[in-house]
């Protein structure tokens, strides 16, 4: 914290500012209008991810507006001296995938980006949150942000996860319990034995979706798993610097008796593979369950429920298992990393994609793509009838051509199932890579545990 | 850039009695390809407002001339989801100066304040009364007094107080923006950087 406004917000120094093509053009234009430079280009990292195609990336982008916007980022970064891992750069990928994999994201940092899923980086014990374009301009201009201190919440998940249950199910479960506004105004810390036992990528999935419960940000205390992940990565400290950094990071976790404004406890054993049935991420149930009946829905959310049922063309009381599916999307900053691709590939190996399914497997970055290639994942996918595309945000928000057609049902490993999110009229059901894999094989909603 | 000042507003309202309106509804992703701040008002609630062929949907409030005004009244949990500030630009670009709801998502609230669009959080009961009054008489006026942090159903009330961050209140009353403040304390930032490098 640099200073505090009397009776107002604190001035927070930003250690790392991630930038992408969609929320930055107006910010750079603002700097230009003021006649000022980016204060710390070396603390800024840019990528193109939201608008880019996931096929034929070596050719010019077809869509005129997308091409213009991606180009604008390149021009802006050139003008202002901001490092850019743009289209076709070996480190290009979804912003919240490349930060961690390049070792840019480190414990204890303050990290922002004009993107709500910036909370992902909280998995490293950093203070990471999403900001709007005006705030992007603020950070570019001053490397600081005016922030009011949020309340704190700790969400504990204790015990062991059942077979076929993964971190995506944990976070969908939590949101189904507390709602999309359940953590609004709070910065959340995830703790408990179930969290400790997760890999870094699994932790990132959870922190990624903190925003879907309304949280300002979500973090997990760094530990040996965290340090192991960062070690040796491109921008990780090396040698004596590394040892010094780890010592500092070890001091970071909250004291055992730290007080939080709110504390919640959940049992890992209560969680089964999850699937959403409605039009917000909180409308999810265990896959073996049925959609609630109207009477079971809390009065204040009945209107939303009714609207959802109409949009999805589902009936209250319907079972989810067996419902028809048209598309399966593996990817996004939630589940587009190597462990997600490995899990999907291991599941579909030796099996065949259902004929009625169109599947888009989109790696989160070129590095993930390259690693998948090296591990033979591309081959496994192709033999099962799947195709691995090139990295980008893709169908998560369908800004590029990867749009789910109107009325079609998609099981997606992304993070939002809002009306029209994956394309106008698209019907999204959020799930884990395992559930998506099972569905891709049978052609309808399937419990992955049937295969395990 | 300086934001528009907001001191006192008296206006009729446009009701959107839908809960959990997320920013994908307020401004769908395909409109985020723009590189300037203009024109977003045209695409406000695009997929609720227009059909596939671009024709206005008769049953959506923005296409109903009975309702007009500078105040948007919306169901609880307004603005959840994506951090796109374009949502605030769309609402302000359309002509709204304030949004009234019983609950706002954090990032949207911040984005609104940074753009001179006032988010007014009221109780569930007050919101319900507001919706009912507007339904009964679409010409119902509401007064929002920022200085006194009061929202009043005209002509005879009721009235309710609303919270706002004192710093943000000052910015909105005077049309100040955060960047000017931060640029002014450049020296302090530099001192901090030197001490913490």
Automatic annotation (TrEMBL), chain B:
Residue ranges of domain Aconitase A/isopropylmalate dehydratase small subunit swivel in the record: 5-124
Catalytic activity: (2R,3S)-3-isopropylmalate = (2S)-2-isopropylmalate
Gene Ontology BP annotations: L-leucine biosynthetic process
One annotated GO molecular function: 3-isopropylmalate dehydratase activity
GO cellular component: 3-isopropylmalate dehydratase complex
Keyword Lyase applies: yes
Family classification: Belongs to the LeuD family. LeuD type 1 subfamily.
HAMAP family: LeuD_type1
Name of the protein described by the UniProt record: 3-isopropylmalate dehydratase small subunit
Organism: Marinilabilia salmonicolor
Gene this chain is encoded by: leuD
């Amino acid at each position: 914290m640099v200073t505090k406004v009397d009776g107002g917000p604190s001035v927070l120094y930003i250690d790392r500012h991630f930038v992408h093509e969609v929320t930055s053009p107006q910010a750079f234009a603002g700097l230009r209008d003021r006649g000022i430079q980016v204060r710390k280009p070396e603390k800024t990292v840019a990528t193109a991810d939201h608008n880019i195609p996931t096929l034929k990336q070596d050719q010019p982008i077809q869509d005129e507006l997308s091409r213009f916007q991606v180009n604008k980022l390149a021009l802006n970064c050139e003008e202002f001296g901001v490092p850019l891992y743009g289209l076709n750069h070996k480190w290009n990928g979804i912003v919240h995938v490349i930060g961690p994999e390049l070792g840019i994201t480190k414990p204890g940092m303050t990290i922002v980006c004009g993107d709500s899923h910036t909370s992902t980086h909280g998995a490293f014990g950093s203070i990471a949150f999403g900001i709007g374009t005006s705030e992007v301009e603020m950070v570019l201009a001053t490397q600081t942000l005016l922030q009011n201190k949020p309340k704190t919440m700790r969400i504990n998940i204790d015990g062991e996860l059942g077979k076929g249950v993964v971190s995506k199910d944990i976070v969908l479960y939590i949101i189904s319990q507390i709602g999309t506004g359940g953590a609004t105004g709070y910065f959340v810390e995830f703790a408990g034995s179930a969290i400790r036992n997760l890999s870094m990528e699994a932790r990132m999935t959870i922190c990624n979706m903190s925003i879907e419960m309304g949280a300002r940000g979500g973090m997990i205390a760094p530990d040996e798993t965290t340090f192991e992940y960062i070690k040796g990565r491109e921008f990780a400290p090396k040698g004596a610097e590394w040892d010094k950094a780890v010592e500092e990071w070890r001091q970071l976790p909250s004291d055992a008796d730290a007080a939080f404004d709110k504390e919640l406890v959940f049992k890992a054993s209560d969680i089964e593979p999850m699937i959403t049935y409605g039009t917000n991420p909180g409308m999810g149930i265990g896959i073996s369950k049925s959609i609630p009946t109207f009477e079971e829905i809390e009065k204040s959310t009945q209107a939303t429920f009714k609207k959802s049922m109409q949009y999805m063309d589902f009936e209250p009381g319907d079972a989810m298992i067996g419902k028809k599916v048209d598309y399966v999307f593996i990817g996004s900053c939630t589940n587009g990393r190597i462990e997600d691709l490995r899990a999907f590939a291991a599941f579909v190996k030796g099996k065949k994609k259902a004929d009625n399914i169109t599947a888009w497997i989109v790696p989160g970055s070129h590095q993930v793509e390259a690693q998948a290639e090296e591990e033979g994942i591309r081959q496994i996918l192709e033999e099962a009838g799947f195709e691995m595309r090139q990295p980008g945000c893709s169908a998560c928000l369908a800004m590029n051509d990867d749009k789910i057609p109107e009325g079609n049902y998609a099981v997606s490993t992304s993070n939002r199932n809002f009306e029209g999110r994956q394309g106008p009229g698209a019907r999204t059901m959020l799930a884990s890579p395992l559930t998506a894999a099972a569905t891709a094989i049978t052609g309808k909603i399937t419990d992955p545990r049937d295969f395990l | 850039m300086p934001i528009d000042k907001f001191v006192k507003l008296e206006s009729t309202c446009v009701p959107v009695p839908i809960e959990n309106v997320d920013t994908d509804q307020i401004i769908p992703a395909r409109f985020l390809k723009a590189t300037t701040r203009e024109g977003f008002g045209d695409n406000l609630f695009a997929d609720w407002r227009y059909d596939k062929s671009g024709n206005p949907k008769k049953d959506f409030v923005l296409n109903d001339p009975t309702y007009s005004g500078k105040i948007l009244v919306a169901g609880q949990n307004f603005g959840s989801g994506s951090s796109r500030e374009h949502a605030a630009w769309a609402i302000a670009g359309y002509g709204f100066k304030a949004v009234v709801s019983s609950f706002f998502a954090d990032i949207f609230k911040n984005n609104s304040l940074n753009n001179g669009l006032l988010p007014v959080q009221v109780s569930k009961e007050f919101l319900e009364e507001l919706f009912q009054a507007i339904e009964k008489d679409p010409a119902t006026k509401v007064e929002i007094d920022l200085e006194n942090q009061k929202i009043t159903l005209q002509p005879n009330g009721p009235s309710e107080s609303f919270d706002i961050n004192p710093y943000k209140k000052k910015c909105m009353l005077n049309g100040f923006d955060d960047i000017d403040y931060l640029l002014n304390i450049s020296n302090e930032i530099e001192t901090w950087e030197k001490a913490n490098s």
